[in-house]
Amino acid sequence: MFDKEELQEHSKPSSLSSISNATTKREEQLHSVSNSFTDNTHLAGQQQHHVGYPGEKYLANQSQHQSHPSDILDTEAQATNPAEAGSASGPVPPDGGYGWVVVAACFLNNFAMLGYMFSWGVFQQEYTKNSFPGQVSAVSWIGTLAFGCMYMLGGVFSLFAAKIGYNRMVLTGSIFVSGGLVAASFATEIWHLYLSQGLMYGMGAAMANPCVLSAPATWFVARRGMASGMAIAGSGMGGLIFNVVIQKMIDGVGVRWCLRILAILLGVMMIVCGSFIRQFNSTGKKATHITRSDLEILKQPTFLLMVLGVMTTAFGYFAPLNLLPSFAVDKGLTSTQGAMLNSVLNAASFFGRFVGGIFGDRFGLINLCLLCVVASSLTTLVIWMLASSLPVMIVYSVSYGLLGGGFISLLGPILAEQFGTGSLTILVGIVFGVNGVGSLLGTPIAAALLSAFDNNYKAPIAFIGGIMMVGALVFFALKLKAGGKGRRNP
């Protein structure tokens, strides 16, 4: 940039007309940048007075660095569209840096909190076999309550997360998660488990889930899908390990001590996550409530289609995890082999979520989400419907894990891509809230069909695959409405 002497030199009457015009234009740019720099310096100063936890000092320094006039000019020159240039009053996401620490923290939380939930089929099998024989539908409501509360209450807790911070919400959630498991270990009636392992655990998960789903997307733009996929892949890895570990603990020390040990493990991992998770604020302000601009987003056809597609797909998405172990036992396999199928599914889901984010960045997030839902539906209707032996069940577990794993990991990045990150926590809470409606009702409906058709699994399998195909049609409409790959918003 020109310094003051150069500007004065170029403004002399003897200067050429072309140089004078260029100088005037440069002065206008400097005046505009100066105003932005003043606002951002004030914001950075506010941040410096509140440095005291991991990552916050990075945020303050990053804000100061990004707010330098020359940096802003460079960023504006490099952006491919106005949205990518970032907010006029806030820094641009670094696409790395402390963002990778946030990704690791979210991975650990998902490994523990969701990994346990994706192993619910082991508890379903244990409870229906030993604790509450024959009560398949009644027992399924325990896991369903946990999933449903996590998603449906997420929209409410996302408002608190935006106001008090991600770290406090995750730490509070860890208390409810651990407390729910400890309380469940003393249960003597099935309704005790509804309140503890279902409702209380689900509330704790609802506090943490919107934070860990949205935080990575706020730190990245070009690698947003990859970062979010890496973070949520922790749930697949956790499901892989916990399915085996939980079954071993139940066989070794019993279900009650298994729950107590899990309470300690999950609590510690969530506390670690809560100590490091942070949101990168690219808007320069906190989203403490739903604003008028948020309400406008809620009315947009693209958002409404997103909500409808997620809710419809969720009716079938979670049911295989809950029914596969009992399906395997019904076909003559052991409970250990049934738990192994869920482990295989979760292992495949780990790779599906990670790779899905990478391919989503390359080929379009909505495009890949549509492919995942269609393929998950087809594998359910064809492979699972015809499965009667362990090898075929393994093929289904691998296929469904790989393809279905991408679906859930792409929702946060799609929201960030279409609507920006300013109110991402609130939007994620809303979308996953309606997702909870599907997850809350899907498995009980499938279990009710199983009972109605004399323990014939073809009826619930047809329901699961069919309802997911309906969801795929809605996502196809979303693709047409959004157009192409969508836009990238920081």
TrEMBL record:
Q: Which InterPro entries match?
A: MFS, MFS_dom, MFS_trans_sf, Proton-linked_MCT
| Gene Ontology cellular-component annotations | membrane
PROSITE patterns in the record: MFS
Superkingdom as given in the UniProt entry: Eukaryota
Bilayer-crossing residues are: 97-118, 138-162, 169-187, 199-222, 229-247, 259-280, 301-319, 339-358, 365-387, 393-412, 424-453, 459-478
Primary localization class, coarse: membrane
UniProt feature, compositional bias: Basic and acidic residues: 1-12
Q: Name one Pfam family in it.
A: MFS_1
Keywords, comma-separated and alphabetical: Membrane, Transmembrane, Transmembrane helix
Location comes to:
Membrane
Quick check: keyword Transmembrane helix in the entry?
A: yes
Where does the record place the Major facilitator superfamily (MFS) profile domain?
A: 98-483
Where is the sequence biased in composition, kind Polar residues? Answer: 13-23, 31-49
Q: How does it sit in the membrane?
A: Multi-pass membrane protein
Q: Which family does it belong to?
A: Belongs to the major facilitator superfamily. Monocarboxylate porter (TC 2.A.1.13) family.
Q: What is the protein name for this chain? A: Major facilitator superfamily (MFS) profile domain-containing protein
Q: Which organism is it from?
A: Actinomortierella ambigua
Q: What is the lineage of its organism?
A: Eukaryota, Fungi, Fungi incertae sedis, Mucoromycota, Mortierellomycotina
